[in-house]
Design brief:
Distance between the termini of chain A: 32 Å
Distance between the termini of chain B: 40 Å
Largest sheet of chain A: none
Radius of gyration of chain A: 20 Å
Number of strands of chain A: 0
Number of helices of chain A: 13
Number of helices of chain B: 11
Oligomer: heterodimer
Largest interface: A-B, 43 and 45 residues
Largest sheet of chain B: 2 strands, antiparallel
Number of domains of chain B: 1
Radius of gyration of chain B: 19 Å
Helix content of chain B: over 70%
Shape of chain A: globular
Structural class of chain A: mainly alpha
């Protein structure tokens, strides 16, 4: 329990620091944009982590739910609805999408879920590109008094809430069921876990989160090129962040996102388009040789350091 | 008009079968889901494109060479990325192969942009656009060539799987790799060669795509989508029904484009996946409910 309290306190201090940050100093616009993108990435990575890391169901079409959130939020907000309603509508739209693909595919083995979600994202990208071929501009009054600070707070709040939800789910009865499904679906089924029900519940939570991330993105960007949010880039980024950080842990995806966003900022300047190649290679190497990601690496180092003095004592 | 739509559907459907067959083979035999399959099609298309542009090699004549190049790439793929997974339990193997090839897709597509720019390329031989007309139905020469190519590939694959020792080992491995191993079959080599053939078949499909449509480095995912729809339609792991499933998809798409309009073409494919998963997850041509 003591460890838990320490962790709780530490995360409280970090969040408090992040909340106070814009109040204390004037943050440069580019840093602010980076922080907002970081929040969006954390929401997306946690959304994927819940489904991929905890339940072992690989979603290869996260972009569909994110893009759906972006597009719906943009459209609803564009006709004059308040933003909080628009972002809620965006998330609900993502959940509807999840029901369409999740209910048929989650009854079956995991590979069908991956195929279904990948097909969903790719088909939506093509269809949305055909139906909305040009940029959607916001109504002029959305520009009045535009400031990045409220965008940052919305992003931060949702990133914290999302992470907390993943934490709560992971430590609940539902979380236990998910681990059972991930480790051995057949065994879980035999012991009486209603695997279909749990998978659907978690997929709904996960896609709601991805829709929220889309809402934050719309709030931040204002003008939207609709099909761009459906491209595989928006699946690849969060998947990579979760995998590199450590899927199936709370802290892993956050660490992965920080790594990704900061390193991307460096690499993009130095390497241009080629930085995607570097990221892809890192991702492949992590999946092959370090399936637990950064969290596992830290664990190994810690164990190694603990063992070191004791082996001397022998 | 309807006859023309159907003829078009069959031509496109033959291509769709060709697009999916390598993916189906690799998944059916070795349980690797190769998300890079589309990117390998583009790569094969580029090989054929450069052979045509630099040395004026006819695209149909370039198929064996494209296959050879892509076969070697398939061997490299297996040796570097797939062989470490070969001992994993099936579910984990599928998941990890998907994630790894998803990363590889990212690497290859961006490498393709650096190497060849993101311009659209296509192969336009002298008989490009030439038509053949019977009963008011116009059939492009290239389309007929692609149908021939698809039939040839399916027939050759059938012979390979049923008439050779290698084919026997592939079928044995597909049924039960542990038992096959106990019978003295070299599983690793069977997977290796299957992976090579799967990627080589992606190359054949790429050549046909470069002829009938166009290729770009990032165009792979769009074709992977087609391959996945055909795969689900035929039943995951089923190789025999692929060409028929491809033709069915081609026909359904052709008719639906005629009815709902071209912008929603991809949505029709998605609807097919959802419907098949709901009502016939084992695919249209598989009787057994295999793991569904």
């Amino acid at each position: 329990m003591a460890g838990n309290w320490k962790r709780f306190l530490a995360s409280g201090i970090i969040v408090a620091f992040l909340v106070l940050l814009p109040l204390l100093t004037e943050i440069r616009t580019d840093t602010m944009s980076l922080l907002i993108m970081l929040c969006i990435y954390v929401i997306l990575a946690q959304s994927w982590n819940l489904m991929g890391g905890y339940a072992g169901q690989i979603n290869l079409g996260l972009a569909a739910f994110f893009g759906c959130g972006v597009l719906t939020t943009r459209l609803i907000w564009g006709v004059g609805a308040p933003f909080y309603l628009a972002i809620l509508a965006g998330s609900i739209a993502a959940v509807i999408l999840a029901a369409i693909i999740g209910i048929p595919s989650l009854r079956l083995r995991g590979v069908y879920f991956a195929i279904g979600t990948l097909a969903l994202a790719e088909a939506l990208r093509i269809v949305v590109g055909n139906v909305f071929p040009s940029t959607l501009y916001p109504s002029p009054d959305h520009f009045v008094g535009f400031s990045l600070v409220p965008r940052y707070y919305v992003g931060l709040a949702l990133a914290v809430v999302t992470t907390a939800v993943v934490h709560i789910v992971a430590n609940s009865r539902l979380g236990l069921a998910l681990l059972a499904i991930r480790d051995d679906e057949e065994a879980a089924k035999v012991t009486g876990v209603n695997i279909f029900k749990y998978k659907v519940i978690v997929f709904i939570i996960s896609s709601f989160m991805a829709g929220l991330a889309g809402g934050v993105f719309t709030y931040y960007r204002l003008s939207i090129m609709p099909y761009e949010q459906f491209t595989a880039l928006w699946t690849f980024g969060p998947v990579m962040a979760a995998a590199i950080g450590g899927a199936g842990t709370i802290i892993g995806p956050i660490a992965g996102c920080i790594f990704l966003v900061i390193v991307e900022d460096w690499f993009a300047l130095a390497l241009g388009e080629a930085h995607y190649i570097v990221f892809g290679i890192i991702f492949i190497l992590v999946i092959l040789f370090l399936p637990g990601g950064m969290v596992e690496a830290v664990d190994r180092v810690r164990k190694f350091l603990v063992r070191l003095p004791s082996s001397k004592a022998d | 008009m309807i006859a023309q739509v159907i003829a078009y559907g069959i031509v496109v459907g033959a291509l769709y079968g060709l697009v999916a067959i390598g993916l189906a083979l690799l998944f059916g035999v070795a349980r690797y889901l190769n998300i890079t399959h589309g990117s390998f099609m583009m790569m094969g298309g580029y090989v054929s494109f450069w052979l045509f542009t630099l040395w004026h090699v006819d695209p149909f004549a370039s198929v064996p060479l494209v296959m050879l190049v892509m076969f070697l790439i398939g061997l490299i793929l297996y040796k570097t990325l797939f062989s470490p997974l070969s001992k994993l339990p099936e579910g984990l193997k599928i998941n990890n192969s998907m994630l790894i090839t998803f990363g590889l897709l990212w690497v290859l597509d961006n490498a393709g942009i650096l190497l060849w720019t993101s311009d659209m390329r296509r192969v336009t031989p002298s008989y490009f656009g030439a038509m053949f007309e019977i009963f008011d139905v116009r059939l492009p020469f290239i389309g007929l060539g692609v149908i021939g190519l698809a039939l040839l590939v399916v027939f050759a694959l059938h012979l390979l799987l049923t008439k050779t020792y290698f084919g026997k080992s592939v079928r044995a491995t597909t049924q039960d790799w542990e038992a096959a191993k106990l019978m003295g079959i070299n599983i690793d080599r069977t997977y290796l060669v299957t992976c090579g053939i799967g990627v080589a078949l992606a190359g054949v499909a790429g050549t046909a795509i470069a002829l009938m449509y166009s290729i770009t480095p990032g165009g792979g995912l769009e074709w992977l989508l087609i391959a996945l729809i055909v795969l689900v339609l035929a039943g995951l792991g089923n190789i025999k029904g692929i060409l028929i499933a491809g033709v069915m998809l081609g026909l359904v798409e052709a008719v639906s484009v005629y009815v709902v309009g071209a912008p929603y073409r991809a949505a029709v494919g998605l609807a097919i996946i959802v419907l098949v998963l709901m009502f016939r997850p084992q695919g249209l041509f598989t009787r057994r409910t295999r793991g569904a």
